[in-house]
Design brief:
49% helix; six-stranded mixed beta sheet; alpha/beta; single chain; 14 helices; binds benzoic acid; 325 residues
Length: 325
């Protein structure tokens, strides 16, 4: 009798374990940034919380530093279901849905805190709703990188110094237009190639941010940091729409809310990270030149006129941004 009871208990335990394993889902999440980058750290923290809150049903394995390919390739993998999740630059999404380009309006927000408020506002949130239909992935929330600035390998004081210079850009239209209007030779290039290209003169400068300049050691190849803070640089959490369709509603809610929490956490994180990285860069040989909108002269008006033609959402975002404190 005792033995039968024991066997029965063992069978139940084994069955439960098998059921849990069978329904457990390891989500593969891709990023192009290195593992030390704040986006990767946010993804790891999200995975840990998800695992704990789902009692092990969901876990997340991250593939940083473009291990799964570039963002265009990762977006395709999300569409086919070969990849489950990505923390991706909105730059890549803009290559598919032009309206997202309005988020890169120069001086739309003054800092990462305001970026957070605008990205959680009605226009940016409505943009997320279009992603399943237009890119085959579900947008679960935004985060941000630090504000954009420029590092040059030559002494620079004003925007005229950029004319004719080869400036590395993230390849997407709003930034390409901006540098063309500045008279620079915009040179599309992934992050991984920037350090060597600055060293061997393939580019004379980079459009980047304070974290990249410090953590990827670009400052070693720079002379001037133009501290312009000229654009925000959002990241979006994407889940494969194929995977999403197969999930129970409660699981979707859990994944969406956990991802959003950790992505949104970046707004606060970068207030401190920017301060710390600026201090680090100030301790190097790089000359930090503060700059405000007047640095760019008429280029800001030109950019605005061009992009108001491309997307009506720019006017909406400007209105929302004007109301931010
Ligand atoms: C960039 O292309 O500059 C970039 C990419 C990912 C995160 C931050 C910046």
């Amino acid at each position: 009798m005792q033995l039968r009871k024991l066997l029965h208990a063992l069978l139940i335990a084994a069955g439960f374990a098998a059921a849990t394993t069978a329904s457990a889902k390891e989500m593969r999440l891709g990023l192009i940034v290195p593992v030390t980058h704040q986006w990767s750290q946010a993804a790891v923290a999200m995975g840990e919380e998800l695992k704990q809150k789902s009692n092990g049903k969901y876990s997340v394995t991250i593939f940083p530093a473009g291990q799964l390919g570039n963002e265009a390739q990762m977006l395709q993998q999300l569409q086919t279901g070969a990849l489950d999740m990505a923390f991706m630059t909105v730059a890549e999404v803009t290559n598919r849905v032009q309206d997202f380009g309005a988020l890169y309006a120069p001086y739309l927000v003054k800092d990462v805190r305001q970026a957070g408020m605008l990205l959680n506002g009605p226009t940016a949130q409505k943009l997320l709703e279009r992603l399943p239909r237009e890119v085959g992935a579900v947008g679960v929330g935004y985060g941000v990188a630090s504000m954009r600035l420029m590092l040059t390998s030559f002494p620079a004081q004003n925007a005229a110094d950029l004319k004719g210079r080869k400036m590395r850009i993230t390849p997407f239209p709003p930034v390409r237009d901006f540098y063309q209007m500045l008279g620079a030779a915009s040179t599309p290039m992934p992050l991984t190639d920037v350090y060597d290209s600055l060293a061997n003169g393939q580019v004379d400068g980079v459009d980047a941010d304070m974290e990249l300049i410090w953590r990827m050691k670009f400052y070693e190849r720079g002379q001037t940091l133009l501290h312009t803070n000229h654009m925000m640089f959002p990241v979006v959490g994407l889940v494969s729409a194929r995977l999403w369709q197969q999930m129970p509603a409660a699981d979707r809610d859990l994944i969406a809310s956990t991802a959003k929490k950790h992505l949104n956490g970046l707004f606060e994180t970068y207030v401190a990270v920017e301060r710390e990285m600026l201090k680090n860069v100030q301790g190097t040989k790089v000359k930090v030149v503060p700059a405000d909108p007047s640095f760019f002269g008429d280029v800001l008006k030109q950019w605005e006129a061009e992009w108001l033609k491309r997307t009506p959402l720019l006017a909406d975002l400007r209105r929302e941004a004007a109301a931010l404190k």
